[in-house]
Write a structure and sequence with these properties.
InterPro entries: HATPase_C_sf (IPR036890), HATPase_dom (IPR003594), His_kinase_dom (IPR005467), HisK_dim/P_dom (IPR003661), HisK_dim/P_sf (IPR036097), Sig_transdc_His_kin-like_C (IPR004358), Sig_transdc_His_kinase_LytS_TM (IPR011620). It comes from Alkalihalophilus pseudofirmus (strain ATCC BAA-2126 / JCM 17055 / OF4) (Bacillus pseudofirmus). It is a multi-pass membrane protein. By secondary structure, the chain is of the alpha+beta class. It has 3 domains: about 200 residues, Arp2/3 complex 21 kDa subunit ARPC3; about 70 residues; about 160 residues, Heat Shock Protein 90 (2-Layer Sandwich), CATH 3.30.565.10. It contains 12 helices and 9 strands. Helix 4 runs antiparallel to helix 5. The protein is elongated and about 115 Å long. The chain starts with a helix and ends with a helix. About 25% of the residues are buried. It binds adenosine-5'-diphosphate (ADP) and magnesium ion. The site of adenosine-5'-diphosphate (ADP) has 22 residues, from helix 9 and helix 11. The site of magnesium ion (MG) has 4 residues, from helix 9.
Length: about 425
């Protein structure tokens, strides 16, 4: 029965990724090209165990070639292609040129589209992509089979049987290509997660160490500052101006350390009612010099009442917004615009940070906010992640919209804080309703 043989073929096709997942087990890419070897073996097995009838070989070798290119890279792809051609040549038969044509078409399709494949983000689109590529040689094969049948060049007794075989064949190819993609994606996902966990661990340790050092430095600094202040009061000599200078600089160092400490631990310390508009305007004033230096116009527009309140930790909120605005300025070329637009919709208030910068493509957009993701030489890849965490800790939400070469809009939404009086009246109404 063809269906049994084809199910055996599915097992053979899935075996490389299954064995590979056990061997690699979420570890880094191994040195030895396991995947290439497994795919070569699977390719040979496909042909050895293929179902031969009507003078044709029914097997899933095209799926093997396509996946070798997509998941093993170009080199693996061509090696597997060569092995398949060789094995098929050894088997010989009347329709050898026909077999060559189909394998070559699978390899070429996979080769030309493998770069595009890497840009596909979602796994279901990848599944469709793999299926489409695997069907390229199948379409050729089916067409040629039809032509051969019409010329009576194939020993076909019953055409309806051939039609049912073709149906099963296409169906099994679709299933196999879909499954193999899902398995490969699961293996890759596991590897990515493992790497992310290790890096997060490292980052956590570093942040913890840095925070404790900053803490230790702050204490002697405070003592030194205190004594210097005393000495300054007693001193009547010409050193007075130096004292002011030293105290100023010490104050600055203290501020930097305090900022770092509040940044390293994004718990909300002092949650209070913050006037959002005031905060946004302060940020605009703070970053204006930086924007001017980068040749970017930084402007602010609002559509809310002056006194609108949000419940937030003022410093953390500022830090988060500064990160987003700084990213926007950095992404915008000379002469571009960055706008801070504050709007209220229902019980949420949103700060849109909109730039006319380089924007991001889908792939970049999907990675933004993940740990250590940066495209800058001196970037840390932490700003966005920390800022999202801060906003989410305030029951807010951050969304990104971006178009490559057009610009990006980061929208930071926070719940509006109702005045105590308003809350009261709402509660009263609820009570009345009850
Ligand atoms: P860093 O600024 O250190 O690179 P971030 O986490 O702040 O780290 O940003 C991560 C990456 O996201 C940046 O390197 C950049 O590629 C991208 N990015 C962030 N904001 C924007 C933006 N407004 N426009 C285009 N790309 C952006
Ligand atoms: Mg940044």
């Amino acid at each position: 029965m063809i269906i049994e043989k084809l199910l055996l073929q599915v097992l053979i096709v899935l075996s490389p990724v299954l064995i590979y997942s056990v061997i690699s087990n979420g570890k880094k890419e191994p040195r030895f090209p396991f995947l290439m070897v497994f795919y070569m073996l699977a390719g040979v097995l496909c042909i050895v165990f293929s179902y031969q009838t009507f003078g044709l070989y029914w097997d899933l070798r095209y799926v093997i070639v396509v996946c070798a290119f997509l998941y093993g890279g170009v080199r693996t792809g061509w090696v597997v292609f060569a092995v398949l051609m060789l094995t098929r040549t050894i088997y010989g038969g009347d329709h050898l040129p026909f077999a060559y044509l189909c394998i070559t078409s699978a390899a070429l399709a996979a080769y030309f589209f493998q770069a595009k494949y890497q840009q596909v983000v979602t796994k279901w689109k990848k599944v469709l992509f793999t299926i489409a590529l695997s069907l390229v040689p199948v379409v050729i094969q089916v067409t040629i089979t039809m032509i051969l049948v019409s010329q009576h060049a194939l020993p076909v007794m019953d055409e309806s049987v051939l039609a049912s075989y073709l149906f099963y064949y296409v169906l099994v190819i679709i299933i196999a290509a879909g499954f193999i993609t899902l398995l490969h994606e699961a293996v890759n996902e596991r590897r990515r997660m493992q790497e992310e966990i290790i890096r997060a661990e490292k980052f956590n340790t570093l942040a913890g160490l840095a925070a404790s050092i900053a803490h230790e430095v702050r204490n002697p600094l405070t003592v030194v500052k205190g004594f210097l202040q005393l000495m300054k009061e007693d001193d009547k000599s010409t050193n007075q101006q130096y004292f002011s200078l030293v105290l100023n600089e010490l104050g600055r160092a203290e501020n930097i350390i305090n900022d770092y400490l509040s940044f390293a631990k994004p718990e909300l310390k002092s949650v209070e009612n913050v006037k959002l508009l005031e905060t946004v305007q302060e940020i605009q004033a703070l970053l204006q010099p930086y924007a001017i230096k980068e040749g970017v116009h930084l402007n602010e527009l609002h559509d809310i009442e002056e006194g609108l309140l949000v419940k937030a930790d003022r410093n953390q909120l500022k830090q988060a917004l500064i990160n987003f605005v700084k990213n926007a300025i950095e992404a915008t070329p000379n002469g571009g615009n960055v706008s801070l637009i504050v709007q209220q919709t229902g019980n949420m208030v949103t700060v849109h940070i909109s730039d006319t910068g380089k924007g991001m493509n889908k792939e970049e957009l999907s990675r933004i906010g993940s740990l250590f993701y940066t495209t800058k030489d001196k970037g840390t890849g932490l700003g966005t992640m920390v800022s999202i965490r801060i906003i989410e800790a305030m029951a807010g939400m951050v969304t990104f919209k971006s178009k490559e070469l057009v610009g990006t809009t980061v929208s930071v939404s926070l719940p509006v804080q109702k005045e105590p009086a308003t809350i009261h009246s709402i509660n009263d109404k609820k009570k009345e309703a009850m």
